Amino acid sequence: MIDIGLTKLALIGVVALVVIGPEKLPTVARMAGSLFGRAQRYINEVKSEVSREIELEELRKMQKDVREAASDIEQSFASTVADTKQSLHAAWDDGSAGVADNFRVEQLAQTLKAKSFRKKKLARTSAIPAWYKQQSGQKARVLSGAARVAKYRPAGQSKASGSFFS
Predict the structure, then answer these.
(1) How far apart are the C-alpha atoms of 79 and 13, rounded to whole Å?
(2) Within a domain: 132
(3) Which of 44, 89, 136, 164 sits in a 20 to 30 Å window from 27, CA-based?
(4) Residue ranges making up the domain that contains 90
(5) Is the residue at 95 inside a domain?
(6) Which residues cross the membrane (predicted)?
(7) Which residues, 6+ apart, have CB-to-CB distance to 45 below 8 Å?
(8) Inside any domain, residue 85
(9) Is residue 140 assigned to a domain?
(10) Over the chain, what is the mean pLDDT?
(11) Which pLDDT score, from 0 to 100, does residue 159 have?
């Protein structure tokens, strides 16, 4: 801004006192101060508006860069997904015939195993009479855990008195 020292201000004050006179000098000084303050506020507003415009332009440029980067990432992701999908389809088409044959063979083997198990179970259960199983010590039926505890509990112990907390 303008460089005004103390001597220059004193000189301006003396000239204004001589030219304007002592009666009108306070009103002129008040008006000059208010105009000077108004000019400073206007200059500050212009500076802040210019700085806001510069920041806004930088933000727009940054937004444009971010959008470009996002679109690049989106395109690369889409191409990667498409390549992966294509390779999976190619692998599926190449190996699907062998997998189906293996599945059929395994299914046939399981069916044969189930049939032989049923034949063996039928032979075990029906071919030997129950009186022979009892004599030879084979189990005719299975006891649950609670039944075994009740069966083999010592004679001196009895069940709890019925109350949970006693």
Answers:
(1) 79
(2) no
(3) 44
(4) 6-120
(5) yes
(6) none
(7) none
(8) yes
(9) no
(10) 82
(11) 60
